[in-house]
Amino acid sequence: MPQRSCAIGEGLAILQAGLRTVAPAEISTAARDVINVKRLSKQYGGGAEPILALKDIDFAIPEGEFLSIVGPSGCGKSTLLKILAGLMPASGGEALLNGTPIGGPRRDIGVVFQSPVLFPWRSVLNNVLLPADVQRLGRTVMEKRAYDLLRLVHLNGFERRYPWELSGGMQQRVALVRALIHDPALLLMDEPFGALDAMTREQMNVELQRLWMERKKTVVFITHSTAEAVFLGDRVMVMTPRPGQVGDIFRVDLPRPRGLEVMNTEKFGGYVRRIREVLNAGGGLE
């Protein structure tokens, strides 16, 4: 229950970010990449025994790229995502979104957590429209967008249903649509399918790829699964055990759309082995 309450609190912080949006003049039009992370570090606590969660993280993400981040438990994956979401300050270095430092939750960032964090008293449609309501974006226009997005994820006809009437996979689709409703520049996903059974998870991977190809959002996708990282990513970033660093980052040269059968190919297996070699070298393979 505390973990769910924390996720709800973080979700509300993101939704309320629309009231503190970044002025267009603050955004550098010269920035080539949507995300630039430079020598980013995060330390918890002080005194004689501080915990260094992240150390000298460097990477950039061009517009429209799908970046998968994989690593062992405790390596700082979720900490990195929270810094990118503006939910947590870095201890050193910087993270830029379209050339502007990420100093707090922003309207142009969407987040999907491992738990869907849906409000049980709101229908599917009203859960999707929550960011629009909080940010006062205009109900009529946003409602049309909500119907269009729900149709894209095959939830048309479920608009008036409530979360308790949906399967886990359907609930996570609602959370995904809610994160996209305000058309963010960046979509952050923190192990969104980790709690699903294997078959549903594979189906959601295919659905997410299809939606991403349709919308071409810039995506940062956190996962524990080596296969999921390769299947979804344009590139894969492998993190080392704590303090989390970039152990490897490579491009996945597999054509899209990718069907599940690609997981049986030698090329796919080679990418998975590359990830495991990095994790083994750091003692982080689970």
Describe the structure.
- With 286 residues, the protein is α/β, with parallel strands linked by helices.
- Helices cover 36% and strands 22% of the residues.
- It has nine helices and ten strands.
- The strands form two sheets. The chain has a six-stranded mixed beta sheet, with helices on both faces. Strands 2-1-4-5 form a four-stranded antiparallel beta sheet, with helices on one face.
- Strand 7, helix 7 and strand 8 form a beta-alpha-beta unit.
- The longest helix is centred in the last third of the chain and has 18 residues, at 198-215.
- Residues 16-31 have low confidence and may be disordered.
Topology diagram in text:
Blueprint: H1 2-15, E1 33-44, E2 51-62, E3 66-70, H2 77-85, E4 92-97, E5 100-101, E6 109-112, H3 124-128, H4 130-135, H5 139-152, H6 168-180, E7 186-190, H7 198-215, E8 218-223, H8 226-232, E9 235-239, E10 246-251, H9 266-281
Parallel strand pairs: 3-8, 3-9, 6-7, 7-8
Antiparallel strand pairs: 1-2, 1-4, 4-5, 9-10
Helix pairs in contact: 8-9
